[in-house]
Amino acid sequence: MTRHFGLLIGCLLLSGALGQPAQQTPTQDPRYYIPTNKLCYDEKNEPQRCVPDFVNAAFTRLFEVTNTCGETGPTE
User: Fold this and answer.
1) Average pLDDT score, the chain
2) By CB distance 3.0 to 4.6 Å, which of 11, 50, 52, 63 could disulfide with 40?
3) Where do the domains of the chain lie?
4) Could you tell me if 53 and 34 are in contact, meaning their C-beta atoms sit under 8 angstroms apart?
5) Which of 6-10, 16-20, 42-46 has the lowest mean pLDDT?
6) What are the alphabetically sorted keywords of the record (predicted)?
């Protein structure tokens, strides 16, 4: 029993060490994302207020909006 437990722990540690996330850098849709050269620091290396570019995730996509969520009970 102890050997199986040790083997299980070893496998979990190995899988955690070798596991990779699905994407290390999220992909951006080039039609809606334009990289900027604006830095968050000025010429004196002082931090500046950074406001990311607005991305309208619903642009050119169809979706349905309702106000009935939970009206007749909890939703699944």
Assistant:
1) 70
2) 50
3) 33-57
4) yes
5) 16-20
6) Disulfide bond, Laminin EGF-like domain, Signal
Q: Which residues pair with 51 in a beta bridge?
A: none
| Interatomic CA distance for residues 26 and 57, integer angstroms | 15
Tokens read off for 17:
């060490």
* Cα(31)–Cα(17) distance, integer angstroms: 36
CB 31 within 8 Å of CB 4: no
Distances (CA, A) of 52 to 23, 25, 45: 21, 17, 19
Backbone dihedral angles phi then psi of residue 11, each to the nearest 5 degrees: -65, -40
**Residue 49 pLDDT > 80, yes or no?**
no
Collapse the DSSP code of 10 into the 3-class scheme (helix H, G, I; strand E, B; otherwise coil) and give the result: helix
Note if the pTM is more than 0.70. no
